[in-house]
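WARN no homologs supplied; continuing
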Amino acid sequence: MDAAPSRVGGLVLAAGAARRFGSPKQLARHRGRPLLEHAVAAMAAAGGLGRRAVVLGAGAERIRAGVDLHGLEVVVCRDWDEGQAASLRAGVAALADTVGAVLVTLGDQPEIDPRAIERIVGARDGRSDAIRATYGGRPGHPVLLEARLLREVPGLRGDAGARGLLGAATVALVDLREQIEHQWFRP
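OK structure emitted
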């Protein structure tokens, strides 16, 4: 990985088939737009990022045609049915040569705000392997993976994404709950 350590790429994972949901969740309507479009728009609007991509898999062409991807690169994960690890591998592989870290959000996170992404990117401290959002003490996304963890992503398997990597890593936690309740999503 020859990427400049300060460059952060953005990645939205949206490759799953949403079998329990019963239809392509990415296309489900939420506040007048497809669910995936909310997460993609937040990633596109966030400052502090270099290249940005969305990983599609199941129904990729249908989703591509039905969602405004706001200029994000499309990475198609052929092994999408393996689970989130395959999506993460595909996305990181697409960005790894040009970034030193990758910030990951999920496509079914319609309430993600560009400021949440910026806050996680801004929390980089040069010591932590990852920066993870929490919401009142509960871990969630976005998650930023630094170069050391990016090198381990190709070995991930299954539907747990980077969870196994984070367990053995130095992870800085950033609680976003208060900002969501009081600033970003006022009624």
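Helices lie at 35-45, 60-66, 84-95, 114-122, 147-150, 163-167, 177-184.
OK
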